[in-house]
Amino acid sequence: MKNIADGMYQILGEGAFAVLAKAQALEREGKKILHFEIGQPDFPTPQHVKEAGKAAIDENFTGYVAADGILELKAAIQDEIEVTRGYRPSTNQILILPGAKPGIYFTMIGTTNPGEEIIYPDPGFPTYESVTKYIGATPVPIPLKEENEFRLNPEDIAQKITPKTKLIILNSPQNPTGSVMTKEELLKIAELSEENNCFVLADEIYSKMLYDEEFYSMTVRDEAKERSILLDGFSKSYSMTGWRLGYLVGPKMLIEKLGILLINSISCTTSFVQRAGIAALKGNQDDLFNMMKAFRKRRDAIVKGLNEIPNISCLTPQGAFYAFPNIIKTGMTSQEAADHLLHNAGVACLPGTAFGSCGEGYLRFSYATSVETINHAIERIKESFQ
Ligand SMILES: Cc1ncc(COP(=O)(O)O)c(C=O)c1O
Q1: CATH classification number, 47-282, choose in 3.30.750.24, 1.10.357.140, 3.40.640.10, 1.10.3720.10
Q2: Residue 295's pLDDT is what?
Q3: Which residue of 10, 63, 76, 220 shows the fewest CB atoms closer than 10 Å?
Q4: What is the pTM of this model?
């Protein structure tokens, strides 16, 4: 066979899916595995959202729709951004996508040429590094430090920014650490992006998943008109991972071009799923409220439990549903510790290195599971180290 395209050798898989496959292989052998690897809420999609999707299918709303998204959903997103971010984008600043992830990919290829630099957090969502390499851009990972509670430090960005920097990617609340950046830090990065004339992608997929702090979007500064690009979606807040629905809000000219890219690649986002999205944003928010109440209990249980295990320490995450314990004192690498827990404790979690080399010394637990399962896992982990 002829060689495939060079970029294909640069894209990486995602650790969560690899560990899930290993865990499922053990389950087929009859082992009981407790799952902490996949980043998806264990709650069903809210009933009224499911009903809206079903009704749209029954009404035969099943054909192609406008490539950039149906107007009714765009209107709901305008209201949503006005209430949650403090500004009202125009409809031609909004692009509806099948999930948030394509928004990362589209923004990266839509803003950055080969040889230009992309700044992103390490550890961070694996797509940032993978797509940077795929498009031939230069990765500039910024280490997130535990002593800074895993928040991206604007000073570190200032040191790494160059005339070639084209895009800065932020993610708050953050995957995999659960950190939440302060308003001051976010504003400092907005200033840096203005001084250095680069784009900023604010990946805000966990914007509704904060425990104590108020959510702040740095995109309010230019109202996503000049250089900031907001990414959000329905997967996490509304337990809609499999529906595939997300959106970008950004500068008109970029959004228009990305819409054309979308026509050429996807055609449009599934029509009836968009109707379900309207119900999610406009309908009753009790399910989200109750889910976050449950996540808070789980967070407290897992952080307490992990801190009781000798040689493991864990900060309290401020957002999302991930715990990121330090395992350096166990003497194992992240990969060794994750393998040890899978085989000797029957607990599936991810090595911190699945999120970049600065994740060495850490594990990621997605606590999208019951408090009972969390407590059971903690007991098994304790025993496995005895
Ligand atoms: C930081 C971050 N961005 C984007 C996504 C992708 O979301 P979606 O499932 O809507 O594509 C995820 C999912 O895990 C994520 O953690």
Answers
A1: 3.40.640.10
A2: 98
A3: 63
A4: 0.97
